[in-house]
Model the fold of this input.
Amino acid sequence: MIVKNLVVGCGLAGAVIAERIATQLNQPVLIIDKRPHIAGNIYDYEDTKFGINVHRYGPHVFHTNNQIVWDYLSQFTEWHYFMYRVKAVIDGNEINIPFNLDSLYKVFPKCLADKLAMNLLDKFGFNKKISILELNKTNDNDLKFLANFIYEKVFLGYTIKQWGVKPEDLDESVSSRVPIYISRDNRYFQDKYQAIPLKGYTTMVENIIDHPLIDVQLNTDFFDIKDSIKYERLFFTGPIDEFFNYEYGELPYRSLDIKFVEYDKEYFQSGPQINYPENYDYTRSVEYKYYLEQKSHNTIVSFEYPRTFERGINERYYPVPNMKNQTLYDKYYKKLIDLNNVYFLGRLADYKYYNMDQVIERALTLFNSKILTLIGEK
Ligand SMILES: Cc1cc2nc3c(=O)[nH]c(=O)nc-3n(C[C@H](O)[C@H](O)[C@H](O)COP(=O)(O)OP(=O)(O)OC[C@H]3O[C@@H](n4cnc5c(N)ncnc54)[C@H](O)[C@@H]3O)c2cc1C
Done:
């Protein structure tokens, strides 16, 4: 078989690059995916029993400050505006995550919370986000006490469960993803745009790739067909180490075992996401009916049990950013230079902990900077 543009992977990265090629270059695209569905890790579905929209690979909330990305995506979906709120159970109390000034008053008596809040404001200022590592570095004894408290109660247990290591052994890009927020803003994200596609992520991806020049073939693994297919351009959104047949070794990932449980009651918990740094083997429970404010007498909740990624056993969820893995990734990336008309993009091919908006930005930038300029030169 001969195709002009082959896209491997029908997640966000693959869908966006395919859309650009079809609509901007007027060229045919074949997207293949080894899974039986489109949308990659943002795949969601309407549960047939209760009519609740469920995110198959874990909860997804779209958030961005990038106007270009927001405008791009808004062509393909209407939005349900949604400010995400996350709680964690600490000493049996539900507190806001990120840990903020309100959280202080939930876990300490008022006189102590007043003092700590004052010290935080003096030292860092209002509306500032700081990492646990920064808080730990202060010389103020009260703030050191607070840093220890938050470290022990909020970060330590959760990080060990999620990543299998202590927070200090993680790359700062991971540990600083959930900061301490010197504010009373109880939202999980502060981005300008925060929303969920009104008809779900899968429908949104369906709309992105809905073009007469785009064909999709599911249940098709690139490595099963690569010797029988010829292409002018290849866009690969699968794992970079697999592409090069693990020549230098495997890039590690964290995986998840996500258990979905149905409950015969209207609500299971007080909000969409509760984290459990101290109790249970799972890291968080997620109640999906909150996302699109769906009404039902029943409810569906997922519980996430982090696992080490094992090839053929479970899915790659989170890349593990650190120097060693970056060096391994760089070694693979250098091999790309020898390949003509092969482009890597997406969380697996770039081995990056991308949010959805960053993946879209990555695909749009690749198209504008590499593909459009190439065509212009011809
Ligand atoms: C649990 C979890 C929660 C998240 N929550 C959020 C959130 O709230 N907000 C946010 O912005 N981001 C979130 N993200 C990040 C978001 O999921 C990613 O940014 C996005 O889905 C990445 O898209 P992608 O196309 O790069 O990868 P993927 O969605 O993984 O798509 C890659 C596709 O390639 C296919 N593929 C791989 N190898 C092959 C092969 N050999 N042959 C054929 N097909 C192949 C795969 O089957 C897959 O469908 C979350 C991530 C996780 C893990």
